[in-house]
Protein backbone atom coordinates (compact mmCIF):
# COMPACT_ATOMS: atom_id res chain seq x y z
CA UNK A 1 0.00 0.00 0.00
CA UNK A 2 1.28 3.45 -0.97
CA UNK A 3 0.01 6.69 0.58
CA UNK A 4 1.22 9.96 -0.91
CA UNK A 5 -0.13 13.21 0.46
CA UNK A 6 1.12 16.69 1.20
CA UNK A 7 0.34 19.89 3.03
CA UNK A 8 1.36 23.15 1.40
CA UNK A 9 2.82 25.73 3.75
CA UNK A 10 1.14 29.05 4.42
CA UNK A 11 4.22 30.40 6.23
CA UNK A 12 5.23 33.77 4.69
CA UNK A 13 8.91 32.82 4.96
CA UNK A 14 8.32 29.65 2.93
CA UNK A 15 6.21 31.58 0.40
CA UNK A 16 8.65 34.50 0.09
CA UNK A 17 10.21 33.49 -3.26
CA UNK A 18 6.93 32.23 -4.65
CA UNK A 19 5.22 35.57 -3.90
CA UNK A 20 7.82 37.39 -6.03
CA UNK A 21 7.09 35.26 -9.11
CA UNK A 22 4.57 35.63 -11.89
CA UNK A 23 3.09 32.13 -11.82
CA UNK A 24 1.68 32.60 -15.34
CA UNK A 25 5.10 33.08 -16.94
CA UNK A 26 7.67 31.47 -14.60
CA UNK A 27 9.74 28.61 -15.94
CA UNK A 28 8.98 25.08 -14.79
CA UNK A 29 12.37 25.02 -13.08
CA UNK A 30 11.46 28.11 -11.05
CA UNK A 31 8.08 26.62 -10.17
CA UNK A 32 9.71 23.37 -9.07
CA UNK A 33 12.55 24.86 -7.05
CA UNK A 34 11.10 28.09 -5.65
CA UNK A 35 7.40 27.44 -5.16
CA UNK A 36 4.90 25.27 -3.36
CA UNK A 37 6.89 24.33 -0.28
CA UNK A 38 5.19 21.90 2.02
CA UNK A 39 5.40 18.73 4.03
CA UNK A 40 5.35 15.30 2.42
CA UNK A 41 3.54 12.24 3.69
CA UNK A 42 4.87 9.15 1.93
CA UNK A 43 4.06 5.78 3.45
CA UNK A 44 4.94 2.61 1.56
CA UNK A 45 3.66 -0.47 3.33
CA UNK A 46 5.10 -0.21 6.85
CA UNK A 47 7.97 2.20 6.03
CA UNK A 48 7.43 5.93 6.55
CA UNK A 49 9.36 8.04 4.01
CA UNK A 50 7.60 11.27 5.06
CA UNK A 51 9.50 14.54 5.37
CA UNK A 52 7.96 17.10 7.67
CA UNK A 53 10.10 20.22 7.92
CA UNK A 54 7.54 23.00 8.19
CA UNK A 55 7.39 23.56 4.45
CA UNK A 56 10.85 22.65 3.19
CA UNK A 57 9.83 20.09 0.57
CA UNK A 58 9.20 21.63 -2.85
CA UNK A 59 6.11 19.59 -3.63
CA UNK A 60 5.98 20.14 -7.40
CA UNK A 61 9.63 19.18 -7.68
CA UNK A 62 9.03 16.05 -5.60
CA UNK A 63 5.99 15.02 -7.64
CA UNK A 64 7.79 15.41 -10.97
CA UNK A 65 10.90 13.62 -9.68
CA UNK A 66 8.89 10.77 -8.14
CA UNK A 67 6.88 10.31 -11.33
CA UNK A 68 10.01 10.31 -13.52
CA UNK A 69 11.88 7.96 -11.15
CA UNK A 70 9.08 5.40 -11.37
CA UNK A 71 9.29 5.52 -15.17
CA UNK A 72 13.07 5.06 -15.06
CA UNK A 73 12.63 1.95 -12.92
CA UNK A 74 10.35 0.49 -15.55
CA UNK A 75 12.78 1.23 -18.40
CA UNK A 76 16.26 1.22 -16.82
CA UNK A 77 15.83 -0.78 -13.63
CA UNK A 78 16.42 2.03 -11.14
CA UNK A 79 15.48 5.59 -10.31
CA UNK A 80 16.30 8.19 -7.72
CA UNK A 81 14.35 11.06 -6.17
CA UNK A 82 16.31 14.04 -4.90
CA UNK A 83 14.81 16.88 -2.92
CA UNK A 84 15.62 20.46 -3.91
CA UNK A 85 17.90 22.04 -1.32
CA UNK A 86 18.08 18.89 0.80
CA UNK A 87 20.46 15.95 1.13
CA UNK A 88 17.59 13.44 1.37
CA UNK A 89 17.18 10.92 -1.44
CA UNK A 90 14.81 8.08 -2.24
CA UNK A 91 16.13 5.11 -4.22
CA UNK A 92 13.91 2.84 -6.31
CA UNK A 93 15.08 -0.30 -8.04
CA UNK A 94 13.60 -3.41 -9.58
CA UNK A 95 13.59 -6.19 -7.07
CA UNK A 96 14.51 -9.80 -7.90
CA UNK A 97 10.80 -10.66 -7.69
CA UNK A 98 10.00 -8.12 -10.41
CA UNK A 99 8.51 -5.50 -8.12
CA UNK A 100 10.02 -2.22 -6.97
CA UNK A 101 12.23 -1.89 -3.90
CA UNK A 102 12.13 1.56 -2.27
CA UNK A 103 14.68 2.82 0.24
CA UNK A 104 16.03 6.20 1.34
CA UNK A 105 19.13 7.66 2.88
CA UNK A 106 17.07 9.20 5.70
CA UNK A 107 15.10 6.17 6.98
CA UNK A 108 15.95 2.67 8.10
CA UNK A 109 14.51 -0.18 6.13
CA UNK A 110 13.02 -0.57 2.71
CA UNK A 111 9.72 -1.56 1.20
CA UNK A 112 8.63 -3.51 -1.85
CA UNK A 113 5.55 -2.93 -4.02
CA UNK A 114 4.52 -3.94 -7.50
CA UNK A 115 5.73 -1.76 -10.35
CA UNK A 116 2.09 -1.20 -11.34
CA UNK A 117 1.11 0.08 -7.90
CA UNK A 118 4.15 2.36 -7.81
CA UNK A 119 3.45 3.74 -11.29
CA UNK A 120 -0.26 4.25 -10.56
CA UNK A 121 0.48 6.00 -7.26
CA UNK A 122 3.00 8.35 -8.86
CA UNK A 123 0.56 9.23 -11.65
CA UNK A 124 -2.35 9.80 -9.27
CA UNK A 125 -0.17 11.91 -6.98
CA UNK A 126 1.05 14.28 -9.68
CA UNK A 127 -2.46 14.58 -11.16
CA UNK A 128 -3.84 15.50 -7.73
CA UNK A 129 -1.11 18.06 -7.05
CA UNK A 130 -1.55 19.69 -10.48
CA UNK A 131 -5.30 19.91 -9.93
CA UNK A 132 -4.89 21.32 -6.41
CA UNK A 133 -2.32 23.89 -7.53
CA UNK A 134 -4.51 25.05 -10.44
CA UNK A 135 -7.42 25.49 -8.05
CA UNK A 136 -5.31 27.36 -5.47
CA UNK A 137 -3.31 29.39 -8.03
CA UNK A 138 -5.46 29.99 -11.15
CA UNK A 139 -2.63 31.89 -12.89
CA UNK A 140 -0.90 28.54 -13.40
CA UNK A 141 -3.51 27.67 -16.04
CA UNK A 142 -1.86 30.34 -18.23
CA UNK A 143 1.61 28.88 -17.77
CA UNK A 144 2.43 26.78 -20.83
CA UNK A 145 5.29 24.92 -19.13
CA UNK A 146 3.13 24.04 -16.14
CA UNK A 147 0.26 22.91 -18.38
CA UNK A 148 2.61 20.44 -20.11
CA UNK A 149 2.75 18.54 -16.82
CA UNK A 150 -0.72 17.24 -17.68
CA UNK A 151 0.99 15.16 -20.37
CA UNK A 152 3.06 13.32 -17.76
CA UNK A 153 0.21 11.68 -15.99
Helix content range: 25-40%
Counted beta strands? 8
Give the percentage of residues in beta strands: 25-35%
Overall 3D form: globular
Major sheet summary line: 4 strands, antiparallel
Q: Tell me, rounded to a whole number, the average pLDDT.
A: 95
Terminal-residue CA separation: 20 Å
Low-confidence regions: none
Separate helix tally? 5
SS-based class: alpha+beta
Number of domains: 1
Radius of gyration over all CA atoms, rounded: 15 Å
Write the H/E string, N to C. Answer: EHHEEEHEEEEHH
Question: Your description of this structure?
Answer:
With 153 residues, the chain is of the alpha+beta class. It has one domain. Helix content is 39%, strand content 25%. It has 5 helices and 8 strands; from the N terminus they run βααβββαββββαα. Strands 1, 2, 3 and 4 form a 4-stranded antiparallel β-sheet that branches. Strand 7 (100-104) and strand 8 form a beta hairpin. The longest helix has 22 residues, at 115-136. The two termini are 20 Å apart. 34% of the residues are buried.
Name its key features.
8 strands; 39% helix; four-stranded antiparallel beta sheet; alpha+beta; 25% strand; 153 residues; single chain
What would a concise description of this structure say?
With 153 residues, the protein is an alpha+beta fold.
